[in-house]
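Worked example (supplementary).
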Amino acid sequence: MQRLHIGDEDFERKFTRIVNDRRESDETVAHDVREILRKMRQSGDDTLRDMTMRLDKHALSDDPATWRIDADQCRAAHDELAPETKEALQLAADRIRDYHEGQRPQDRDYRDAQNVRLGAKWLPVDAAGLYVPGGRAAYPSSLLMNAIPARVAGVERLVVATPTPRGEINDLVLAAAHVCGIEEIWRIGGAQAIGALAYGTETITPVDVITGPGNAWVAEAKRQLYGVVGIDMVAGPSEILVISDNKSNPDWLAADLLSQAEHDPASQSILITDDAQFGEMVEDALGVLLAQIKTQRTAHESWENHGVILVVDDLATQAPALADRLAAEHVELAVDDPEAIFAKIRHAGSVFLGRHTPEAVGDYVAGPNHVLPTGRRARFASGLSVLDFMKRTSFIELDEAALRTIGPAAAALAEIEGLPAHAASVKVRLK
Amino acid sequence: MQRLHIGDEDFERKFTRIVNDRRESDETVAHDVREILRKMRQSGDDTLRDMTMRLDKHALSDDPATWRIDADQCRAAHDELAPETKEALQLAADRIRDYHEGQRPQDRDYRDAQNVRLGAKWLPVDAAGLYVPGGRAAYPSSLLMNAIPARVAGVERLVVATPTPRGEINDLVLAAAHVCGIEEIWRIGGAQAIGALAYGTETITPVDVITGPGNAWVAEAKRQLYGVVGIDMVAGPSEILVISDNKSNPDWLAADLLSQAEHDPASQSILITDDAQFGEMVEDALGVLLAQIKTQRTAHESWENHGVILVVDDLATQAPALADRLAAEHVELAVDDPEAIFAKIRHAGSVFLGRHTPEAVGDYVAGPNHVLPTGRRARFASGLSVLDFMKRTSFIELDEAALRTIGPAAAALAEIEGLPAHAASVKVRLK
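After joint prediction of all chains, the assembly is encoded as:
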């Protein structure tokens, strides 16, 4: 963990290092992934069989049950849940759906003063693939956050790819799939699964958009396949920036900081406060909580290597600029007047206002998407939304009079650009 | 040029080959670009100097004028334009601005039934880089189409990168830059220019989003840097699909087909009609026009290698499904009732309705963006818009009562996901 004070002589150098700290995939991963994708293009099913056996110790045989999990299994997994878990999943699903329904875009269709008809029509993609990691990061909430926006967009075919190491299936993920009504689930993982979804194989029909979290290989495969399919975003380890005065409860903030640290050793938790002593109280509280949680090892590694407590002189005037340079995935404003600071922040994935809004409510039940830009991408990227599963077709309609009004300007520009056929296509109609 | 009939025995095989025809960059380009970007990360200015000398024969010296074109030069270039060119540029700029102003997204901010405050705030990115190719594809219209949406989004810093081979500057591009009020223009091109904009160099401050067309190296550099910055889209050669009955004027359609063919030898023009004889008339008209235009060589190569005339039995029932498989950048519906066919088309970049709407009006003056998804990407991607220069921050605010209502479900889900610090961050606040 790093302690910084904005007045430190080498503050700028140290803070810049934190800003530029790229906790992401390296060239080796990129090279491996290129090889895997090349193989997937050449022999999809065979490569899937080989790699799934080698990496997941799961045999994709002639028995379809080794390739797919069917809807009945999902329903059964859901039936087995404790009633309060069912209710919590349903509350989450309902609230996520409600929030995302407000994201549906409006079509446009109008005639302007020159009687040119102009517009834009939004439609869902035909098919979306959702990746769900196996092992540590197999989160049912993640399936809800990816599947529900696709459903709200109106996507007809929703496909899940998830590895089942040693044949083991995560029942919670199946139960969440049932809640989302997903019927096509493939037992494949890694870069090869992303390749299968993008290119298709003899067995698997390709999709148009791939979303969902994954390890470095999955993230790199999505990055390399961007353009072959649409993807949600290049995702890195998660991050939280807590901005707090000294009136917050240190125990609360300690839990908030650890809630990101426990995700991954590469996660990053940063506290900005205007009181050094308060910073120490949070650090102490964090140590106490850390000793009690079973994600201790991951959280400790993350906090030790990437945690930061940064003391400033004045929160309102200094914190927003620092927050913008970090452009963090999650920003908590644990102050009396969060609005005043929020108004000055330009770059953040999602902002949690006030002392009673722990980031974790956003992970599960608040409604907005928990798939958010990491690694400073909030400078230019947004959280997952209904729009990621839709595309817009613009349209134009002119009659002869409208073409006579605006066409000559088009022909003039085509001519100065040296494109005679463009010009001809207008002029031949105005003869 | 290929002639196809939907009734041909091997139609499906041939059409599939057309659909899968990837006229795009290969592995060699990808490898070269990785090398260039690696060098740009290590020594930006030196690499720019070396490559600009080698490829553009232009020396980036200690004289800033060799690096930048200033606003006065742009104004002067604009002053030199013929009055009708000035007017055409201004008409285009005004109409593009009007259309894009309708794309500004709405912020959200509301409280739901559980008194949870939820919302989303849209903001422009801080800086956008617009690439403008040198040589054949240096189009002032392209600068308008990239810069105006960024301006409408509210982007403060707009940067243009454009190569000036042998020091030669394209005055039309400068004039368009003046119309858009662009003040920062760098005389660099290729993958190295994209690297400079994304990573920054000693001389050039990095940007957040890079848009604009370019050759295979530029396109591949943008693809590889996606995630480091936002990009508009992976762009391939342009395409037009004309769907027409036999009542259109063959001369009109010939010009429309050639207007894409003249862009690039890799461009593709396809006519779908329900009358084989009409198809031949269009082919003949195309031959006549081809002989007259100075873009003959490019247009001829494109038409010979990639042109298609496809005859179907019934336009209304058969053309939309074929159009969806092609998911073309531009689709012209030259029929009496274009609306009926448009209603059945799901995948297209932009649609031109009726016989008096040549695609070229969309390239220049109609208003919608001419930067559109190519290479079948209309299945999942949209044309360039104001949203490409903005990003959305979601926000959440709970008070104690709201946290008491929805918090326990969040804690329950965190616990089943094995994330105790997430659960603790809720529970510690509800003690």
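Two points are worth noting when inspecting this output. The CA atoms of residues 136 and 407 of chain A lie 60 Å apart. The first helix of chain A runs from residue 11 to 20.
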